[in-house]
Design goal:
The complex is a heterodimer of chains A (348) and B (1111). Chain A is α+β, with helices and mostly antiparallel strands. In chain A, 33% of the residues lie in helices and 19% in strands. The chains are: A alpha+beta (348), B alpha+beta (1111). Chain B: Residues 761-1014 form the P-type ATPase C-terminal domain.
């Protein structure tokens, strides 16, 4: 009783102390007087900004255009050239029939430095909503090789899980492209190419991992290969045993889906040895293509691209042009705004 | 007609304290002096003789004078609890209604009937005055009381921006459906042309059997993806078990993103912030009453920046309801002028010392006067001055009470009269006591008893009152006080010189908005008086037209009077009222005064508030009693205005012809300043359906509108009328219970707190204790709120469109498959984390010009009224900017990525890198944009803007980190994307280019607008030149209204009938009466006449009598 009384009294004292005045606090925050800088679009600032932006955009544009000029690129579209193979592939029953074609071409100027070989697909929609989702990252990271959730409609084949499952994996680009250099008119040299180091480090070592087993085939036991594949995942690269399974570079490259229906993916890097230490010398070359990947059915096209790179990657002219145009327009705007400003000032 | 039956049911044994909520019909409650009446009561008995009881009805109808109520004789003896306990009467009365001045009922008690009228009722909202206690039977309680019946219904208030938003949301929804349809058609075509052939790699779902059905599904998927443009949390969430897994947010996405930051939520946060700023504003804190301003709702703030019409109560809002004896003119000499030139409303602190009244033991300490020369005149024995104060101490109907020796207390029925008698008291002419036949005055220390021969009572036609007294020497003298227009015509010709001097003074006082009365006296012969008294008695006994006869008898004697001087009473305005009104008028806000008080007092206040000025071309007064009269008066007013504007137009040679067909537009552009004063009974006609438009047109063409003698419900009707036809934002401000209805009706209701009643505050949206805070509420808080809200909404739409439309463009590149451009987490976090806080900070803290400037340039308020900052046009501009940004946001990265590769040869144009690039440039662009929009960079803005960017990158890298991927490989499949993509120079070049291209046009556009067509706030920000000019203008304005005026300042809140009451002695306690001298005269007819005259004055005669005002 005594205690209750006392607590009540202290509570009362507290309230009386805490509200001696209802006067609002005189703080900068509450009075909306916070120290602040009022940003103003003054003429000098705006004009200076436009001038500087225009200048830097122009400069950047010119640099980009110049460096894009230095890139050498050769594209060989083999959709038409290999029309026979294409026709063969349109019928799914012929999946086991081999078909290949050769395309000779000429490189007029030596391609200096690192040369990259891409395959380029036209009209292949790797960005379809369902397509992009149709994969199992849990399977690909090696945790559970039989995990096929989300892989519809390529999750299982007659009840057996597919590895790697999903529409992306199933549609993997599986043409074989071999580049030969016509050294002398008689002698063809196979241009040495690297099929590794063409994927991101994080993909190769983090995102894609093989199931931890001593040997790959047993790791993939209990699964079947995707229906469109000719060989199981652990036999993708016969030459390099460690480049197999989910960590196969070509597979990883394919699995990184493209943003647009026309895209090029890195296929091989030039191995700069023998004749090719400086890059690809000028001369005549030929492509030997084992045609497996059907594209004509959906009006797609395929081509092979050989290209060198610069500091900004294999950029096209677009970026340089865009910068140049932006710079030019900004300067134009700068001068017209200057004119407007000066006339307005005079009027005042 | 249904009747109510109320019986005094409760058995009373003792008095109990009960809260108001427990008061029930049939209870008997006791009220004490100065208490609010808790329910509608039937007055049973009171402490005063004859069951009289005085009430102040200012809360109820805004009238400032005291009213008298009387219990019916049978119950007036029930003064004791034991007697009350036996009271078992039954009342049958009308059902609850909103008529404040009518009541009819019957009391059945002791087997007899007693008629009840309004005269026996104490209505809720009144205050008991000058009455120690009274008992009442509760007739109506709670919502049935007349006050509550008048208060109107509470409506849910929404701002115009809210309503606009509703429309816009619908439009956006339509836009969303359009986009959905376009994309669905696209999908159907694509599936038909390409998709069917692509089935080798991606077969259709089992459910999808045709391209058409696929398009249909795609439509719904796009509606879900694109719904981020719709700014409400209308969110379709497709759960598992939907028609097809093809739809988005199917089972594949375990954590379904909820991308829509509920816009209503952030709007509420901003409004809440603004409300707190109002609560915290120390410049809206009233030191005297210790009350800060209070925003009672948090939903209306931005509308405070759009107010066009203010409806103000008078009593207690504009005025303090305190009358102060301010100046007087005695025998051609004016007293009370200040030595300083500051004007009469200077603050107390700035004045010299007030007069010391300590010589007078009976002086009222509260009375203050500043001119010592008046006291000198009294002390030196100036006979005119003595006579002046003698008149004030004799000619009135005040009752005195002296509880202890020397502690005088006056019961005045109007505060004006109280002020006059108190002035006389302090200057040594102390009215001490009265009996029906005598008045005792302590004249400079010596008590003198005058014999009171007659009181010639006040009424609205006469506008004067007189007393006839016989002084101890036996001389009979008539003292008269009244309106100058009336009295100055009745003076003796010999006072001509004095008259002109006094008239000058009167004009001067009137020009200052003071209420003036002229004082005069006349010596009467003994014989003449005797003869006159006989005639008066005859007139008063006449059966027919007694009133007219009396009036003519009075008129006869009140003639050839000697002018004594004039008094000037200040109806004390609340602090800073004229300045506030002037400022608000400059801000193009129209102010209407709606008061229950009399026309004279209302007009007088109109002048003292500078709402009405002598510069005005004309003040129209509408007092018609019939529909036709009112219509005619309104028509005349309009014609006059039209004529005036026509002559002005014709004055210039090349003016286009006025088309009379468009009356409204003509009236809008009327030349000259007009004002309209309309009476309650005329207003009742004017508000009828067929005349309301005419009335509104006329009223809106006037600069000031004053509606007097209006009922609470009429106040609401006027507000409703303006709301209905003008499409303008209205604000009602008031302090009393009679303002509740208009406070509830108006878009914004403001209650003046700290006064006695709190009903107005309880019904209000904003409350503070001084009218002058209104300017700050509107011009500073309201303006900023509106500005901030508009900026916020513009930016909000912009950023959501920029964000969402990218999906639309991407649709054309992904087979319309409802693929999003961004990572699901970005979609979820974009609105609630990455971009919400900077815009919230802007919405809460932004200021375009400092607060002092918005007071200096009231014109800055106009954009809000014209709704310039956020309307459909601005909305489309924002949308266009958003779409423009989205186009660049998509196509620049597309152009770059289409052909490019990374610097190590690997693919650049993969979906994930594209997503990160677009998302990053989007976040940067909208951050730069908010930086441009933010005009007031506080530390908080800096923190939020930089913080948002930092958080974006932090979350980006965290989401794309190896650790998270290891734990949840399916959820965080963007692993390694951030570090790989953002390490590419090409990506950064793209981001920079996108930012530059998105932002520079905005900067250029703003710069050009600034140089070619700057609005006022820009100008205020940039030029000091304009500032000086405006300031000069401002100063000019303050000087207006001090010029001389030819109008009368007469206004007197008085009611007739009290003279008779005094002469009958009914209201005097037996103890204070000299019983011997008391002879019962005539009858108890005084109360009858009091009642009748009151209804008369409310009814007919004022129409003619108000003419002299101006016109």
């Amino acid at each position: 009783m005594e205690l209750a009384y006392r607590t009540k009294r202290t509570a009362m004292q507290k309230t009386s102390q805490s509200s001696p005045s209802r006067r609002p606090d005189n703080t900068a925050y509450k009075q909306q007087q916070l120290p602040a800088c009022r940003v103003q679009l003054t003429a000098s600032r705006v004009l200076l900004c436009f001038f500087a932006t225009g200048l830097s955009c122009l400069a950047m544009g010119i640099v980009l255009l110049l460096s894009a000029k230095g890139i050498q690129e050769v594209e060989i579209n083999y959709t038409e050239t290999c029309a026979d193979c294409a026709a063969l592939r349109e019928n799914a029953d012929n999946f086991d029939k081999e078909c290949s074609c050769s395309i000779p071409f000429n490189i007029p100027q030596a391609m200096q430095g690192d040369v990259y070989m891409f395959y380029k697909l036209y009209g292949f929609y790797q960005n379809l909503y369902q397509y992009v989702l149709s994969r199992s990252n849990i399977q690909l990271v090696g945790t559970d090789v039989k995990h096929t959730d989300g892989c519809d409609p390529f999750a299982t084949l007659n009840g057996t899980p597919i590895a790697p499952c999903g529409a992306i994996a199933n549609s993997m680009f599986n043409d074989t492209i071999i580049l030969s250099y016509n050294f002398n008119s008689s002698e063809d040299i196979k241009v040495p190419m690297l099929n590794q180091g063409i994927a991101w480090w994080t993909d190769k070592y983090v995102k894609f991992q093989n199931p931890s087993f001593n040997d790959l085939p047993s790791a993939f036991e209990g699964t079947v290969k995707p229906p469109s594949w000719s060989q199981p995942a652990y036999e993708l690269d016969a030459d390099t045993p460690e480049n197999n399974g989910f960590t196969n570079d070509a597979f990883i490259v394919w699995m990184r889906t493209a943003a647009f229906p026309t895209f090029k993916k890195l296929y091989r890097r030039l191995h700069r040895t023998q004749h090719f230490t400086e890059g690809l010398p000028a001369g005549s070359y030929s492509l030997h293509i084992t045609y497996n990947f059907p594209v004509t059915k959906f009006h797609g096209e395929k081509s092979v691209v050989l290209s060198t790179l610069t500091w900004s990657g294999g950029s096209s002219l677009f970026l340089g042009l865009a910068y140049t145009v932006t710079g030019a327009v900004t300067w134009l705007a700068f001068f017209s705004m200057m004119a407007v400003y000066v006339t307005m000032e005079k009027r005042i | 007609m249904p009747l109510m039956i109320i019986s005094a049911t409760r058995v009373i044994t003792s008095l109990q304290q009960e809260p108001w909520m427990n008061v029930c019909v049939g209870d008997i409650i006791k009220l004490e002096n100065n208490q609010f009446v808790a329910a509608d009561l039937l007055l049973l008995s009171s402490s005063e003789p004859h069951g009289l009881c005085y009430i102040e009805t200012a809360e109820l109808d805004g009238e400032t004078n005291m009213k008298v109520r009387q219990a019916i004789p049978v119950t007036s003896e029930l003064g004791h609890i034991s007697k009350l306990a036996k009271f078992d009467g039954e009342v049958i009365c009308e059902p609850p209604n909103n008529k404040l001045d009518k009541f009819s009922g019957t009391l059945y008690w002791k087997d007899s009937k007693f008629a009840l009228s309004n005269q026996n009722m104490l209505l809720r909202g009144c205050v008991l005055r000058n009455t120690e206690w009274c008992f009442g039977l509760v007739i109506f309680a709670g919502p049935d009381t007349k006050l509550m019946q008048n208060s109107g219904r509470t409506k849910f208030k929404r701002t115009s921006i809210d309503r606009l938003m509703n429309t816009l949301v619908l439009w956006i929804f339509g836009f969303l459906v359009c986009m959905g349809v376009i994309l669905a058609i696209g999908n159907a075509i694509w599936e038909h042309e390409v998709g069917t052939h692509f089935q080798v790699y991606l077969p259709w779902d089992e459910a999808v059997d045709s391209a058409f059905f696929s398009g249909f599904l795609s439509f719904w998927s796009y509606i879900i993806i694109l719904n981020t443009v719709v700014p409400i949390s209308l969110y379709v969430r497709w759960r598992e078990g939907g028609p097809s897994a093809r739809l988005r947010w199917g089972p594949q996405y375990p954590g379904v993103p909820q991308p829509d930051l509920p816009l209503p939520c952030s709007v509420e946060v901003i409004r809440l912030g603004h409300s707190y700023f109002i609560n915290w504003d120390k410049k809206m804190f009233c030191v005297k009453r210790q009350t800060p301003a209070e925003a009672r709702t948090t939903t209306l703030n931005e509308e405070l920046g759009q107010v066009e019409y203010i409806f103000s109560d008078k009593t207690g809002t504009l005025t303090q309801n305190i009358m102060v004896f301010n100046k007087c003119s005695i025998h051609g000499h004016s007293y009370g002028d200040m030595f300083d030139l500051l004007g009469h409303k200077a603050e107390l602190g700035e004045r010299p010392e007030p007069i010391d009244f300590s010589f007078n033991p009976l002086a009222d300490n509260k009375f203050v006067f500043w001119d010592p020369s008046l006291l000198e005149a009294v002390k030196t024995g100036d006979p005119h001055t003595h006579e002046f104060f003698r008149l004030l101490s004799l000619c009135h109907t005040v009752m005195s009470e002296e509880k202890d020796e020397g502690e005088l207390y006056y019961k005045a029925q109007s505060p004006d009269e109280g002020a006059l008698v108190t002035a006389a008291r302090n200057f040594g002419f102390v009215f001490r006591s009265r009996t029906p036949k005598t008045i005792t005055v302590q004249e400079l220390g010596s008590a003198i008893t005058y014999q009171l021969l007659a009181i010639l009572d006040f009424n609205n036609i006469r506008k004067r009152m007189s007393v006839i007294v016989r002084n101890p020497e036996g001389k009979i003298r008539l003292y008269c006080k009244g309106a100058d227009t009336i009295l100055l015509d009745r003076l003796h010709p010999s006072t001509h010189e004095l008259l002109s001097a006094t008239t000058d003074h009167l004009n001067e006082y009137a020009g200052e908005g003071l209420r003036t009365l002229v004082l005069a006296y006349k010596d009467l012969d003994e014989e003449y008086y005797e003869e006159w008294a006989v005639r008066r008695l005859q007139a008063s006994l006449a059966q027919d037209s007694r009133e007219d006869r009396l009036a003519s008898v009075y008129e006869e004697v009140e003639n050839d009077m000697m002018l004594l001087g004039a008094t000037a009473i200040e109806d004390k305005l609340q602090q800073g009222v004229p300045e506030t009104i002037a400022l608000l008028t400059l801000a193009n806000i129209k102010i209407w005064v709606l008061t229950g008080d009399k026309q004279e007092t209302a007009v007088n206040i109109g002048y003292s508030c500078k709402m009405l000025t002598d510069d005005m071309t004309e003040v129209f007064i509408v007092t018609g009693h019939t529909v036709l009269e009112v219509r005619e008066e309104l028509r005349k007013a309009r014609e006059k205005m039209l004529d005036a504007s026509r002559t002005v137009v014709n004055g210039f040679p090349c003016q286009e012809q006025l088309s009379t067909s468009k009356l409204t537009s003509v009236l809008e552009a009327v030349a000259g300043e007009y004002a309209l004063v309309i009476n309650g009974h005329s207003l009742a006609h004017a508000l009828e359906a067929d005349m309301e438009l005419e009335f509104l047109e006329t009223a809106c063409a006037c600069k000031a509108v004053i509606c007097c003698r209006v009922t609470p419900l009429q106040k609401a009707q006027v507000v409703e009328l303006v709301k209905k036809y003008k499409k303008a934002v209205t604000l009602a401000i008031g302090d009393g219970a009679n303002d509740v209805s208009m406070i509830k009706t108006a878009h914004i209701g403001v209650g003046i707190s700290g006064q006695e009643g709190i009903q107005a505050v309880l019904a209000s949206d904003y409350a503070f204790s001084q009218f002058k805070f209104l300017q700050r509420l509107l011009l500073v808080h309201g303006r900023w709120s509106y500005l901030r809200m508009c900026k916020f909404l513009c930016y909000f739409f912009y950023k959501n469109f920029a964000f969402t439309m990218v999906h639309f463009w991407f649709g054309f590149f992904c087979g319309f498959s409802a693929q999003t451009v961004y990572d699901q987490y970005f979609i979820t976090l974009y609105n609630i984390v990455y971009t919400s806080l900077p815009v919230l900070a802007m919405g809460v803290f932004d200021q375009d010009v400092p607060e002092q400037r918005s007071m200096e340039y009231p014109k800055l308020y106009e954009p809000g009224q014209l709704n310039l900052l956020f309307n459909k046009r601005e909305f489309f501009i924002c949308i266009a900017q958003g779409i423009y940004t989205s186009v660049l946001m998509f196509f620049i990265p597309y152009g770059v990525f289409a052909e490019a590769t990374r610097d190590d040869g690997t693919q650049l144009a993969d979906y994930q890198s594209f997503a990160v690039t677009v998302a990053t440039s989007l976040v940067i662009v909208v951050s730069v944009q908010i930086g441009l929009d933010t005009g007031y960079w506080t530390a908080i803005n800096h923190f939020f803007i930089w913080g948002s960017l930092a958080v974006y990158f932090a979350i980006l890298f965290a989401m794309h980190s190896n650790g998270l991927f290891d734990m949840f490989p399916n959820q965080f499949c963007f692993v390694g994307n951030a570090q790989n993509t953002l390490a590419q120079p090409a990506v950064w070049l793209t981001i920079v280019l996108t930012t530059v291209v998105c932002i520079l046009p905005v900067v250029a556009f703003r710069f050009l607008k600034l140089s070619l067509k700057p609005d006022l706030s820009d100008t205020v920000r940039y030029t000091q030149l304009v500032r000086k000019k405006q300031k000069a203008q401002h100063r000019c304005l303050r000087r207006v209204g001090r010029t001389g005026s030819r109008r009368s300042g007469y206004a007197f809140s008085h009611q007739e009938g009290f003279g008779e009451l005094i002469m009958s002695g009914k209201n005097m306690r037996l103890s204070s009466l000299a019983l011997s001298g008391f002879t019962t005269r005539s009858s108890s007819s005084w109360i009858e006449s009091l009642r009748r005259k009151k209804s008369d004055s409310a009814g007919s005669p004022s129409g003619t009598s108000d003419k002299p005002l101006k016109g």
